[in-house]
Every structure is written in C-alpha cells, then in structure tokens.
Amino acid sequence: MTSLVKMGRLAREAAFELSSLSTDAKNNALEMIAVQLERNAEVILERNARDIEAGKRKGLSPALLDRLLLTEKRVQGLVADTRNVIKLEDPVGKIIDTRIMDNGMRLSRRRVPIGVLGVIYEARPNVTVDIATLCIKTGNSVILRGGSETLNSNKILAEIISDALDQAGIPSKAVQYIDDPDRSHVQKLLRLDKYVDMIIPRGGQRLHDLCREQATIPVITGGIGICHIYLDESADRIRALDIIENAKVQRPSVCNALDTLLVHESVAERFLPQISKRLALSDVVLKAKGKALEMLQSTGDGCVVEEAGADDFDKEWLGLTLGVKIVADLDEAIMHIREHSTEHSDSILTGDEENAEKFVDRVNSAAVYVNASTRFTDGSQFGLGAEVAVSTQKLHARGPMGLEELTTYKWIGRGSGHIRN
Fold first, then answer.
1. 251 and 199: one domain?
2. Considering the domain boundaries, does residue 215 fall inside one?
C-alpha cells in the first residue's frame, strides 16, 4: 500500500537537506540524471512501448498517443533539457533587493526554495524528467502522480532519477512517484498540507477543477490552452500562412497549439481558401459558422469543413481540428478572445503597429504575440530550460514556470542591536 503520509514526511526531510546544497552539488546530481537517462534509453523506450500498446488497445486518440510517445529523439531531448538546466543560473540565494531603513537596519529579500511540490499530470512522460530536474536545481522536493496511461514510462523514469540522486549523494526521496493507479491517492495528495507546499496540476479541465475544489494546499493552475490567432486586414498574408500552419500543425497535441483562427472580414474571401488548401496538406478539419462556413465549403481542394457546434469555440482541440470565425474588426476579435480564451497564448498577425499595441494591451493572456506562432510558449523556447507547467493564473507565477517560479523569498533584517520603539 502506498503511504502518502510517509512519502510526504520523506519529501519534507529531503527538502530540508536540498535547501542548503551548493549549486555545484545540485548540478552534479543533474549531470548524473542525464548520464543515467542516456545509459537507460533502451529500457525507457521499451517501457514506453508497453504504454503505447496499452493505449491503442484502450482506443486512446492519436493526439493523446502522441503526447504519451517517447522516441529516441525525444529521450535525447530529455537529456539535452536536463543539461540545459545545469547551465542556467541558480536562483536560490539570490538577493532580490536591499534597502537601508531609517533606523539603519539593512533589509533584503533572498530567494529560497518553496519546499515540497505535489504535481499531478496526464500523459507526457517527459514531464517526469522536466519537473524533477527543475526541482533539484531549485532545492525543492517533489511528489509526482502521473496518469495510468503512462504508468510504465513514468515508473522507470522515476527509478532512474532516484538512483542517479543516490549516486550523487543527494536524498533519493527528493523525487518520489506515486505508482499506485488508485485515484484515491490524488485526493489524499491534495490534502497533504502538513507536508506539501504547492499543488501543480497538468491536465484537462476536470483535473484542474478537482484540484481547486478539493485541495487544502495552494494550487497553481494552467496548461489548458484555447489559443487564438487573429489575422488583421493589414497582415502579410504570405507569412500568415506559414505562421498559422506552424501554430496548428507543428505539434497539434500540446497546449500552445492553435485552436481558433479569427479573420478580418475584408480579407476573408481571399485568405480562407488559401489557408484551407495549405492546412488540407496536413489533414486538418475546419469548424466554422455563417459566412466562414460558406466560404470554406466552396473551396474545392481544401480541408474537410464542418459546421461548428455551440461549444466548439470553447474547446482545446489537442489535434488536427481548427475553429474558424470571421470578425468585423479588431474589437470583435478581442471580444471573442475575452469570451473564449483560457488566457494561455494568443497572437495577432498585423502590419499596423497601433493595432498590435491595442491587442497586446487588451488581451490578458499569459503570453501575447505579434506576428508570431503561439507555439513559442514553452520553457525551453523562453530560455528557462524545462518547465513545470504553463501557469494561466495571475498570482505568484504566470506563463512557463521555470526555475525562478519555483522559488519564494524570505525577508532578512541585519541590525546592530536594533529594537523597535
């Protein structure tokens, strides 16, 4: 039987030791993890193949299977990401600011680890490595709970990481994995407030709702992306084809992939057939209403086009489906995004700097782009190394959560016999 209380206690003890480790000691442990991932690549792929085969038998969607899949290239990507974290500046111990008070006492804020994280996630076994490496670098310990669909992959990755920590002389319980698929362990983890300092869910809306409703621990939510691109009337439409294709097709199963394309009515008649033909090469299905539906259906060699349902503009597709809507102007585009966005990643394609600034100012997403794909919202792309999650909330952390977002701070007062009058 898995004892969450025992895991929590061991995680707390490990966090205490990690908090005072030198950067060199932490980097040495990360290099050991990278080495062990390389040495065990074959067994990692074998265990992942079991998950993929089981997923196919269960009828998992191609999008979910892609999120679950590890290839030789993706394993090497995990190794590279781990070594990239080694290169990043250690935020722990960094002085944020210092000031001298009127009474002469020096007051400063210093970055420190958060402590113990509980991370609940679905599919994507790379998350196991991403979170573990970021936590080690920032002196945090972590309790991981992945989905049942990737149990074999996550178990072997967690074992490799734990062994590597032990070899590096760091408490192996700094990274623990709940390998019992019983869902009751999720509820228990959410209430483990005596030991766990923060919960980070990475999954669908139901998981996020569950964590918000049942956790007795602070929850950082994010990773659900209903992402938009608005094509303004002044946009470079040749470049727009490339940007939209990249945002939708490059990896459609992830949270920063494009879900809805908004097109200014003055360019829709010419542009929609063009983008439909381009996306048809990747078997994208378009969902549209009204004039957009009529225009797209009249394109003989374009995408399969279906009428959008009542809730289709509120869906994160996570696959090769794209919602399309014609809007009268920038204001209507912004209003649509306000109504349907999850405040993850949204972009405007425009040649008008005034419209670009208005979009940036009024679209309140964690990442807002001008003339760029939404696919850049990623820890490694932002130069943060790996990421724990992409936060769409507004407190503590927003956007890709890298090293700095896994720290808090303490106030330090240095006096010379100071007393308060």
1. no
2. yes
Overall domain count for the chain: 2
* DSSP secondary structure letters along 254-290: STTSEEEEEEEHHHHHHHHHHHHHHHHTTTPEEEE-H
Q: What are the pLDDT digits (tens) for 401-411? A: 889 999 999 99
If asked whether residues 49 and 170 sit together in one domain, one would say yes
What CA–CA distance (Å, rounded) separates 162 from 69?
A: 22
In a domain, 191, yes or no: yes
In a shared domain, residues 175 and 140 = yes
Q: Where is 244: in which H helix or E strand?
A: helix 237-249
Adjacency order of strands within the sheet including 407-414: 95-100, 106-113, 407-414
Instruction: Supply the pTM of this predicted model.
Output: 0.85
Nearest-angstrom CA–CA distance, 263 and 329: 9
Identify whether the C-beta of residue 420 lies closer than 8 Å to the C-beta of residue 101. no
Distance of CA 302 to the CA centre of its chain: 32
Using alpha carbons only, what angle is made at residue 120 by residues 71 and 14, rounded to the nearest 5 degrees? 95
Does the residue 96 lie in any domain? yes
**Do 323 and 227 form a contact (C-beta atoms < 8 A)?**
no
Residue 51 within any structural domain of the chain: yes
Are 120 and 186 in contact by the 8 Å Cβ rule? The answer is: yes
Q: Determine whether 16 is exposed, middle or buried from the number of CB atoms within 10 Å of its CB (0-12, 13-18, 19+).
A: middle
Q: Tokens for 311, please give them.
A: 């809730």
- CATH number of the domain bearing residue 196: 3.40.605.10
CA–CA distance from 287 to each of 105, 117, 237, 260, 407 (Å)?
Answer: 63, 39, 21, 9, 42
Give tens-digit pLDDT for 46-101. 999 999 999 999 999 887 898 899 999 999 999 998 999 999 999 999 999 999 99
Neighbour tally for 176: CB within 10 Å: 25
- Among all chains, which residue has been given the structure tokens 């005596």? 194
